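It is worth pausing here to work through a concrete case rather than discussing structure prediction in the abstract. The textbook approach is simple: state the sequence, then state the predicted structure, then interpret. We follow exactly that order.
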Amino acid sequence: MRNFFNGIGNAFKNVWLAIKEGDIFVKLSLIIMGLGYFRRKQYIKGVFVTVFQLAVILFEYVVGIPYLSKFNSLGTVQREMVFNLNTMKNEVNDFDNSFKILLYGLVSLFVLAVALLFYFMNIVKVRNLQIADESGKHINNFREDAKDLLNEKFHITLLFFPVMGVIVFTIIPLLVLILVAFTNYDETHLPPTTLFTWVGILNFKKLFASSMTVTFGYSFKKVLSWTLIWSFFATFTCYFGGILLAMFINNKKTKFQKMWRSLFVIAIAVPQFVTLLLVRNFFADTGIVNTICTHLGITNLFIHLGFVKSSLSYIPFLTDPVWAKVMIVLINMWIGIPYLMLIATGVLMNIPADLTESARIDGANAAQIFKKITMPYVFFVTGPYLVTSFVANINNFNVIYLLTNDVFFTQNQYLANSSAQEVDLLVTWLYRLTSDEYNYKMASVIGIAVFLICAVFTLVAFNFMIKGDKEEEFQ
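Step two, the predicted structure:
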């Protein structure tokens, strides 16, 4: 953090020195950005930065000022029908749209921030051109600059469009999500019909508060605990299951290796959307699995053992909270283990043969080789995948939603008051709040919570993995 602030301080210092020590054209570049380039005969750059400056000014005048002037209140004019004396008809008034004000106001601020950054960088660049010109150094013309963009600076050319895509499709929506969390944007304040406004940190307080009417605090603890439990079991069952399956298939004593590998690959070749819906029907209360269990007497056995309530005549695979959670983890193993099997197969084939051979000569058995060589090597190579897999399971929408949607219904009134269920992850709860309840404010708060959880875990996990020089152990 200290280096970050030092870097900012040095940047402002360079800008100040450029303005102070620059010639008249450098100083005039504070007014017209291209003058410094025109003086050094770099006319194309001069035209480009001047057009950029005019475009920013025009954008801020047409879009920025009208929307930023209402950004503090997010609008004051409600949508309503007004009788027009000229046309003698009821017409919609010139109303404010809170979401458009929020979005365009944010975009205007973002454009202004980028323009200021580019503005200050331009001052430093024209000052450097002045120094180069006065010292007799060669200054590139337009053709030479264009060649640089295809040679020495080709990385800048390649990164331009991806960076713009990240800004437009990732950064701006993420900032909108964060800002919505500080408003009362919900089903009762839904633009364009009604307005919403800023409420500060009220929604964040509500996420941790519990009462008879507001149960988000209770629901958040329940859903968060299940999300972490699910992520742990979903990650490590598939991780170790995939490694063990890969070792079994690639063992010299295993026959028909290609057949076994193909069968498991087929399980992941079919889209999850299809397989999960089919599995949901198989394990439904009136599904084929329950029919088989009834005929075989398994249902009566579970009722006798107390695993199933005596009032039921079926096994509630996906309708009871406990059964549903266990089944979700088991079904996810069927889907996830083949992925890890393919990854682990490639890793196992690259374990140095001299390591295992030396271990056998020293008298190590198969279990000791697995514990001391195979697992450390696989973990070293697949460690980053393990971290990303855990984070992905925190946001694993498909498995939870497709298996339980329209099948599982909570009987917990506290959860129901917050539109949550026992089997919900934070991401599926967020989806229910937006698609079913239009409660965008609380969905945004939960989205921020998911981001913070994933960010903290990722930083801690990767910091632990890169600590020390572990690569030397396998050289």
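Step three, interpretation. The mean pLDDT is 85. Strands lie at 81-84, 89-92.
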